[in-house]
Amino acid sequence: MKVTEEDILHIAALSRLKIAKEEEKNYQEELDKIISYMDILEGVDTENVPPTTYALPMENVFREDEPKDSLDRELALSNAPEVEDGYFKVPRVLEES
Amino acid sequence: MRYEAVIGLEIHSELKTNTKIFCGCKTTFGAEQNTHVCPVCLGLPGVLPTVNKKVVEFAIKAGLATNCKINEYSKFDRKNYYYPDLPKNWQTSQYDLPIAEHGYVEILVDSEKKKIGLTRIHMEEDAGKLVHSGTNIKDSASSNVDYNRTGVPLIEIVSEPDMRSAAEARAYMEKIKAILEYIDVSNCRMEEGNLRADINVSLRPVGESKLGTRTEMKNINSFKALEDAINYEIERQTEVLEDGGEIIQETRTWDPAKGITLSMRSKEDAHDYRYMPEPDLPPIVTTKEEIENYRKNLPELPDARRARLEKEYGLSEYDASIITSSREMAEYFDGVIATGADAKQAANWIMGDLSKNLNADGVTVKDSPVDAKRLGEMILLIQKGTISGKIAKQVFSEMWKNPDSPEKIVKDKGLVQITDTKAIEGIVDEVIAKNQKAVDDYKNGNKKAIGALVGQVMKASKGKANPQAVNELLAKKLG
Ligand SMILES: [Zn+2]
């Protein structure tokens, strides 16, 4: 797979990253090298191999539906850059989810 | 050109668990902002979420109750997007292996049954709530975030685009609501956002099988808004197409005050969610045996209950479907007939005076001032001939304001039906004397004329005379 400069701009936009014009080419080349390295793996025959989604052989890790104490609000808000009336305050939101 | 609407719904339903989906924070509605939050649901680094077992149980039940196939192997995925109501910058949801798939529910619209397909049901976490500083999101300099709702368990029920009108979409959503209430997995309080729908609407020329371009309206949380928004959107798209325009694929907001939908002008790539398997949550494996066990323990569902009411009590399909449309209503009906009251009468009163009064006062059947027992007792008074059906209407509206038993109300208000012939005789004589024309008509062979006379007697007795006794007495006197 070839990573293009357009891909870089798209990924940066999705990740809310600002990339300087002169850095674009560098990122494109480096990411392209990394992704191309993965192409080696494409050569392996995985026809009858189930995808490895999890590194550990675990399943059905559950908890009972029992309430636990939540954080004190002061503590919960203590790392917030801005707080107002017990809320996390955020700058202007431009788009709906 | 004539167009056909193609409608699909994504219904989000909050599950009625005590705690959130991945942490032990409480799910109680209306708590003070940011008091039901912890490192897990705030998405602080280094935390480990753990799945609430109840959520899986509830989701499997919902799948079985909507005729879905339950996936024996199911997993969670991260849906990545940036929005301040989502502290982790991804929503933990399910992508390619949802808990349930390929189901259907049946709806009844204009006495026609129709199957609506379900694509899938998946589990996910709810997002937080934004309070904007301005009147809406666009004119707000800042917003405040409450994360209490973040992590409240949801199931998302995705339909096939099988609906063709607002009425069908409404019937479908009502059916989903009824099913979730019957299996007791959600409170379904739409005004609290327990149950809300994203609607997809597109048009295509009648006879065309290819789908047209669709628009989406999110977070619709009342049946009225659902119908209004769909009808508006069908009209708007029809106009655009008839003017030779093109429908733009976009999200639109429904403005209930103005009764219109508005473009949100969202960017294309906002929907590039880059799903990836959630590495912190091991997969969910459910055996065939466990699935069968859940199936066996499902309660009676709306369709089965409707069929039973039709068969056992001879109710019409329409009446039975209205009564079984909510669990509370069906249970109320059971309560009425438990007193020994006639089932058809019970159905008539529930769908008539009871529903009318509930709607007028804006209360649900659960909080009805006239409970099932008193309505049943009142119907028994009609059956015994103590009161007429007409007087019963008076008794009913009195019961609405007054907690006394119907017997007491009938006695206190002097509403007992007069079956004593002597007491009625005086009124009958008077009516005969005053209505010479009807009497002559009757005597000249127009037997129907007696109806007018019965009516006069009933009016003069203020509805208390027994109509049958009046009829007999009049027939006798007129020879
Ligand atoms: Zn929490």
Short description:
The complex is a heterodimer of chains A (97) and B (479). Chain A has helices spanning 5-14, 21-42, 73-77; strands spanning 62-63, 83-84, 87-91.
Description:
The complex is a heterodimer of chains A (97) and B (479). By secondary structure, chain A is mostly helical. Chain A has a domain at 5-42. Helices cover 38% and strands 9% of the residues of chain A. Chain A has 3 helices and 3 strands. Chain A has a two-stranded antiparallel sheet with strand order 2-3. Chain B folds into 3 domains: 3-292, no CATH class; 300-412, no CATH class; 421-478, Orthogonal Bundle (Arc Repressor Mutant, subunit A), CATH 1.10.10. Helix content of chain B is 39%, strand content 20%. In chain B, the strands form 4 sheets. Chain B has a 9-stranded mixed beta sheet. A 3-stranded antiparallel beta sheet of chain B has the order 6-5-16, with no helix packed on it. Chain B has a two-stranded antiparallel sheet with strand order 4-17. The N and C termini of chain B lie far apart (68 Å). The mean pLDDT of chain B is 91. The complex binds zinc ion. Residues 20, 23, 25, 37-38, 40-41, 151 of chain B line the site of zinc ion (ZN).
